[in-house]
Write a structure and sequence with these properties.
Helices cover 7% and strands 50% of the residues. With 146 residues, the protein is mostly beta strands. Strands 1-3-4-6-5 form a 5-stranded mixed beta barrel. Pfam families: SSB (PF00436). InterPro entries: NA-bd_OB-fold, Primosome_PriB/ssb, ssDNA-bd. One of its GO terms (molecular function) is DNA binding.
């Protein structure tokens, strides 16, 4: 079986950083990911708001380098967890557990740089190597020959 998620979107708000009692970094954030199609009534693209969580060194990298509006590529796995809410009812949470990220564009928004960061915390600058850099519009696959 395979559980793999790949997303490209923009951060809805600044990331939230916490530490577990054992000292492990934890970052949560929401990524707005555009849908491929337009709404028939309004003619505008809709977005899905995906909850994401990252741990340890990757969490610290995200918290230190990303802010609201930044475009980001995410690779991870889908997870469903549950807990008992304050009202005693079971609450289910779906989220992407991030294992790798790609910074798309720069902090200034000129879309000129791109950095890959893996869970191991190693950085490698790969300027202009992403096929998505400089393109904030969703890819329209209707023009592909297949």
């Amino acid at each position: 079986m395979m559980n793999s998620v790949q997303l490209i979107g923009r951060l809805v708000k600044d990331v939230e950083m916490r530490y577990t009692p054992s000292g492990h970094a934890n970052t949560t954030f929401t990524l707005a990911v555009n849908r491929k199609f337009k709404n028939q009534q309004t003619g505008e693209r809709e977005a899905d708001f995906i909850n994401c969580v990252a741990w340890r060194g990757l969490a610290e990298t995200i918290a230190n380098n990303l802010s609201k509006g930044r475009e980001l590529g995410v690779v991870g796995s889908w997870q469903t967890r549950s807990y008992e809410g304050q009202d005693g009812k079971r609450v289910y949470v779906n989220e992407c557990v991030v294992s790798d990220i790609t910074f798309i564009g720069s902090k200034g928004g000129n879309n000129q740089s791109n950095t890959n960061t893996s869970q191991g915390g190693q950085n490698s600058n790969t300027a202009n190597s992403s096929p998505f850099s400089g393109n904030s519009e969703p890819f329209d696959d209707s023009q592909l020959p297949f």
